[in-house]
Design goal:
Blueprint lengths: L1 H16 L10 H10 L2 H12 L8 H9 L3 H13 L6 H13 L3 H9 L6 H13 L3 H13 L6 H14 L2 H13 L6 H13 L3 H10 L5 H13 L3 H13 L6 H14 L2 H13 L6 H13 L3 H10 L5 H13 L3 H14 L5 H14 L2 H13 L7 H13 L3 H11 L6 H13 L3 H14 L4 H13 L3 H13 L8 E6 L2 E6 L8 H17 L6 H6 L1 H4 L9 H12 L6 E5 L5 H13 L4 E4 L4 E5 L2 E2 L6
Parallel strand pairs: 3-4
Antiparallel strand pairs: 1-2, 1-3, 4-5, 5-6
The protein binds zinc ion (2 copies).
One zinc ion binds next to loops.
Pfam family, one: E_motif
Organism: Tetracentron sinense
Keywords: Repeat
Length: 631
């Protein structure tokens, strides 16, 4: 309490007391030296008086310390006052001074002070470890912890929670594991605070197996522990597991808080789990949670990434407070769905009424323009980025510009942009965008050059080999396709495995190419056969090219129809009522044949099918796609 008051009153307090009795013009070092020279007798007397008694918290010096608060200069002045008054050995004063110094952010001064304390005790160490861990000095927290170990002082659960947090901030897995062993030796293995800290530490360090082991052993799980486990899974790409832990949390009736929802919504975004995301939204509303800026932005992201951009906008409009991240999320949401003009409109509105756009906002708007073919608007945004906001374009912005020009068939301009406007060596992503454009506009000669260049800068990336073999195949140079493939095999490079996700009944179902693991496999394949024959009757002709070219996705499988997205769509259509839109999330780019087939499926079933691929959304309705072949 005293600390909080003191922080709030610091400013006033400092003005009133800082010069009282304090020799401001004396340098600290001089005073330190002076204190060392003081007579032995006086020293002994003081030591007796101070070390045997607790320093009274109502004494003027202690009050001065509280009033100085966590600010370096006033603290140094009180420090001088302490030395002059002969209290430099008071444990209470030094501990307070040290923690305040650490809180003030001056870790150098803190360390200096620390070394002037003879035989520091557990309490001092604990305060220091706690403060340095809390105020962003994880290295120092670990340093003080090691000193404490060295001096064989008693460690409490506070010591461990603080030092484990420091290890988590540094993702220092090795040191953290050593601390974990100390925890067990010292008998704190079942302390719920220490366990919660360990769960966070292992989750943040990416060792989810041990995180889960510690979590499972916990008898008392706080909401913080649940949140750590959920966010650990979510941030390491195990969205499904994150959702499962959340369902478990619901079963044991632990009340979630807004941090739970932020992680959960992000997991929903990864999975395209609109149903669960919608449920979270309702829960937030029904339980009177404040739609703060973080939660609101998470909802925007979830709706946009789960295919419902209109709902995202509803949340955006409902938010009382929005920051640059919320605006950017909304613009990027429009962009992902190919709603370029809405993105541009919102961006203009942001410029006149919203917060100052940052460089991420510009990535969002440029990418929206690229995906919607809005070349003029994109150029305009790029110009104002530098002119009006003084932002220097980063590689991401250059990638968007090349992508935008390339998609709009300005291949020469795109190459010129790469050669003249990008300082230094262009990142592989720039060449990848260029290559995509060459493929889209069937300029295979340029494509081969770009792909070879790409391979030269990143010879270990399997994706580049795939792209190069695609482009050779398109150019009809099958001999080169074989060479590239065998090169890839020789180097032991494996391409990414494609999969598609679909949410049904609050559960996510995953399909891989030719998957036969689903309980409904027989029905799915029969239904898919029927679907494809109906589509053929409606005029669909499979694109055999895709088998050859789209090696990136699912290589040359024997049959195109078993691509993961087709299986997921068949499953979705079979199990949902007529009129319900189907949403699929695919981890890679769709192949040309799937894109074409889904158009026909949308006709013969009279359904809306939404597919999120690696780059954007495709809304298929009545035989056409929202991307207008722009992908
Ligand atoms: Zn396909
Ligand atoms: Zn499309």
């Amino acid at each position: 309490m005293a600390e909080t008051l003191c922080t709030a009153d610091t400013h006033v307090g400092y003005r009133n007391v800082s010069y009282r009795g304090c020799t401001n013009h004396y340098s600290l070092h001089f005073l330190l030296a002076l204190s060392r020279l003081s007579s032995m007798e006086a020293k002994q007397k003081l030591q007796q008086r101070l070390q045997n008694s607790i320093f009274p918290s109502h004494s003027p010096i202690y009050k001065s310390l509280l009033q100085a608060g966590p600010r370096l200069r006033p603290l140094q002045q009180v420090h001088a006052q302490i030395i002059v008054s002969g209290f430099q050995r008071s444990r209470a004063l030094l501990t307070k001074l040290l923690t305040l110094a650490c809180t003030s952010g001056s870790i150098f001064y803190t360390r200096q002070l620390f070394f002037s304390v003879p035989n520091p005790d557990s309490f001092l160490f604990n305060s220091l470890i706690k403060a340095s861990s809390k105020y962003g000095f994880p290295f120092d927290a670990i340093f003080f912890y090691q000193r404490m170990q060295f001096q064989r002082l008693f460690q409490s659960n506070f010591t461990f929670t603080a030092v484990i947090k420091a290890c988590a901030d540094l993702s220092a897995l090795k040191i953290g594991k050593v601390v974990h062993s100390h925890v067990l030796v010292c008998g704190f293995g079942s302390d719920s605070f220490v366990q919660a800290a360990l769960v966070t530490f292992y989750s943040k360090s990416g060792d989810l197996f041990i995180a889960r082991k510690v979590f499972d052993k916990m008898i008392e799980r706080t909401v913080i522990a649940w949140n750590s486990m959920i966010s650990g899974y979510e941030q390491n790409g195990f969205a499904k597991e994150a959702v499962e832990v959340f369902y478990w949390m619901q079963e044991v009736r632990v009340q979630p808080d807004s941090a739970t929802f932020v992680s959960l919504l992000s997991a929903c975004s990864q999975l395209g789990a609109l149903g669960l995301g919608q449920w979270v939204n309702d829960y937030i509303v029904d339980n009177g949670f404040v739609l703060n800026v973080i939660l609101g932005t998470s909802l925007i992201n979830m709706y946009a990434r789960c295919g419902n951009v209109e709902k995202a906008r509803e949340v955006f409009d409902r938010m009382h407070e929005r920051n640059v991240v919320s605006w950017t999320a909304m613009i990027s949401g429009y962009g992902m769905h190919g709603y370029g003009s809405q993105a541009v409109e919102l961006f203009h509105f942001m410029r006149s009424h919203g917060p100052r756009p940052n460089d991420v906002t510009f990535v969002a708007i440029l990418s929206a323009c690229a995906h919607a073919g809005l070349v003029n608007e994109g150029h305009e945004a790029f110009t104002c980025m530098k002119r009006d906001y003084g932002l220097v374009p980063r590689m991401e912005h250059h990638v968007c510009m090349v992508d935008m020009l390339g998609r709009a068939a300005f291949l020469n301009e795109a190459i010129q942009y790469i050669e003249e406007l990008i300082p230094g060596e262009p990142a592989p992503a720039v060449w990848t965008a260029m290559l995509g454009a060459c493929k889209m506009h069937k300029n295979f000669n340029l494509g081969v050059k770009v792909a070879e260049h790409l391979l030269a800068i990143e010879p270990e990336n399997p994706g580049h080999y795939v792209l190069l073999s695609n482009i050779y195949a398109l150019a009809g140079r099958m001999d080169r396709v074989e060479t590239i493939r065998s090169m890839m095999i020789r180097r032991g490079l494996k391409k990414q495995v494609g999969y598609s996700l679909i949410e049904f009944n609050h559960k996510t179902h995953m399909f891989c190419m030719g998957d036969k693991s689903h309980p409904q496999t027989t029905e799915i394949y029969l239904y898919l056969d029927e679907l494809m024959s109906k589509s053929r009757d409606a005029g669909y002709i499979p694109e055999p090219d895709s088998v050859m070219h789209e090696l990136e996705e699912e290589e040359r499988e024997f049959m195109l129809r078993f691509h993961s997205e087709k299986l997921a769509i068949a499953f979705g259509l079979m199990n949902t009522d007529h009129g319900t839109p189907i949403t699929i999330v695919k981890n890679l780019r769709m192949c040309g044949d799937c894109h074409l087939a889904i158009k026909f499926i949308s006709i013969v079933t009279n359904r809306e099918i939404i597919v999120r691929d690696k780059h954007r959304f495709h809304h298929f309705r009545d035989g056409s796609c929202s991307c207008q072949e722009y992908w």
